[in-house]
Each structure stands twice: as structure tokens, then as C-alpha cells.
Amino acid sequence: MEFEPLKIVPLGYVRKDEELHETFIEILPEFRGAIDGLREGDWIKLVLWFHESDTPARRRVLKVHPYGNPKNPLTGVFATRSPYRPNPIALYTVRVHRIDENRLYIDWIDAHDGTPVVDIKIFVERYDCPKEVPIEEREAHIREGRMIGEVNIIPRRSEHLDELEEVSPGEYDALILEIGPKTTTLTAKELKDLIEALKEVYDSLPVEIKDKLGELKC
């Protein structure tokens, strides 16, 4: 069976400053705009291409001794983090400590200097640390999601309301609330309480600020 090659281009490279003990991602100029919106302190998923493991022989390796220790039983590479894989892709979760133009300073990783960066994605607990949550992904109304600062609000789809007559507001999970990478859910009652609390905060704002907010509506 022949496979059609996929085209992957590097968007940057891992850089190691051994003297300063710093690790950073150097984004190529043509991809500089893609990091807009990232903030210092953000957690990201870093996808690398282990180019030094990209040989025909290593791509054919399907089983390895985990951690390179021959005392460990041979295990399929998909059940390990071995760099020997049919496609030598590496995945890291790291924190952005500093952003300096096209450089993202991150935690130390064991990738070599010059390792190509394939992709960068923001870390989201709901996707990257899956756990049982009251609202299943298929019930989330993703298209109606709203981003306000670092808060992401995703409402639950409102289908099948005829089945909810026996469900109390304290039992019905109404929305997914993401703050940075953290995820929680709010019941309908909690949502009502939050709205009332936010209204109290808004009402307590200085008149001058509320007047200016009123001008923004025009």
C-alpha cells in the first residue's frame, strides 16, 4: 500500500540558550501574526517534528522498550512516548513565561536545539484533561460561545425541553464556563445567581464609568 505524502511546514524552531539556561520557540516571520492573543502565563500544547528520528529505519519501528530500558517488555509505540514512530511527532504541554516579539520563552523540554515546530495550540482543560462533565461535548452549543476577556461562555443546546419538566433548576446544567484553561459548569440556578451578583457589581460602579459605558453602546 502506498501513502500519499502529507505536507507539513515548520512554523518555527526550538532554541536552547545553554548559557542563560533558557528554552524558547523562535517563530518564523511569516507566522508571527499567529501568536497574537497568547499571553505570558498561558499553557500551550506544543507539537514538534523529531527530525533527528526521521529515518526510514526508525519509522518502521513499531515496538520499543519503554524509556529505552531493555528490562521493560516490548510495547507498541502508540502506547509509549518514544521518539521512534511512523511519524516522529512529539507533543509537549508547556507554559509561556515570556513573549519577546517572535520568541516564546517556555519551560525546559528535552527536544534538541533546531527541532522544527509543527503547531501550537492553547491548552484547554476540557479537551486536554478529559474527565466526566455534566454537559457532553455534543450538547454544547459551540457556535454560540462568547469570549469575554479570559472567560469563555458556552451555553447548552436547548433541544428536548419537553423532557425537562421534572428537572429542577439546580439539577439542570446550563452552560460551560472556561476561565483560561480551567473548565467548570453552572446549573441554571447558579447561572441565575451569577447574573444577580454581576448586576450588583455593575450597579455599584461609579456613575462616571457607567455613563461612559452607556456611550459605548452608541
From TrEMBL:
Ranges where the TsaA-like domain occurs: 8-132
Source species, domain of life: Archaea
Keywords: S-adenosyl-L-methionine
Statement: the UniProt record of this protein carries the keyword DNA damage: no
Keyword S-adenosyl-L-methionine: yes
CDD domains, sorted: UPF0066
InterPro entries referenced in this protein's UniProt entry, alphabetically: TrmO-like_N (IPR023370), UPF0066_cons_site (IPR023368), YaeB-like (IPR040372), YaeB-like_sf (IPR036413), YaeB_N_sf (IPR036414)
Similarity section: Belongs to the tRNA methyltransferase O family.
Annotated PANTHER family: TRNA (ADENINE(37)-N6)-METHYLTRANSFERASE (PTHR12818:SF0)
This protein's name: TsaA-like domain-containing protein
Organism: Thermococcus kodakarensis (strain ATCC BAA-918 / JCM 12380 / KOD1)
